[in-house]
Design brief:
CATH class of the largest domain: Alpha Beta
Largest sheet: 7 strands, mixed
Helix content: 25-40%
Low-confidence stretches: none
Strand order of the largest sheet: 5-4-3-6-7-9-8
Structural class: alpha/beta
CATH superfamily of the largest domain: Vaccinia Virus protein VP39
Number of strands: 9
Number of helices: 11
CATH topology of the largest domain: Rossmann fold
Length: 281
Amino acid sequence: MTGSELLVQGTRALVAAGVPEAGRDARRLMAHVLQVPAGRLTLLLPDPVSTAQAAQFEDLIARRRDRVPVSHLTGRRMFYGRDFRVTPEVLDPRPETETLIAAALARPFTHVLDLGTGSGCIVLTLVAECADARGIGVDLSGEALAIAAQNRASLGLDHRVALKQGNWFAPLADQGATFDLIVSNPPYIALQEMADLAPEVQWHEPRMALTDEGDGLAAYRAITAGADAHLAPGGRLMVEIGPTQGAAVGAMMDAAGLSDVAVLQDLDGRDRVVLGVKPVE
């Protein structure tokens, strides 16, 4: 059987199972099996595939039919031009989070703190983009930090990014460290919204990275309450939000004494990032 024939079979199976963007996913899985960049896949499709490759592809298609995310099947996800390791222990990096990256890079910084770092994609990207920057990633999950450490090593950033386990600012309590940039993509989905999530998210991503089991705003309360003690004067706090949370999170930043509070939109025109600045005294 050729790669083309196998790809058609896989695509049809995903379509029949109601998997969104079945053709794209089947191609990504085929490229993974053949161990080639997705851009070169078309050149190899006319060639026969081995029995082992066919069996691997069919297994991946079966798991994708069960709505396992493609990133979990391949173990990789591209984010801001870099390849990150992804497992069920971390939130799958999403394109809309690149809005936070772009906004953070709009001004220089040297010390960045990432709260709820997960795979490490935010802090590692920011530090990789800024030659003079150093960062700390904090997460409550030891399993997530293990993945972040693998990503840190693969990007050659072991000497510039530290990883600490704990809840929000707690691992920094005795250090007195301040940062000119604090970022976070915290759990912001309200409990009542969980049932509406896509199966890929609801069934396969870490629940603690998705929801606070309440109104979706608990993380922002904790982060804004602790920001002043950890921001340097003129430092920025930037958080990703759900599309309906801009006003509420902005009000928290105002109440915390931050200035220049603004809500930024993603490429789809949805509210995606709230930022505030610690005043310079």
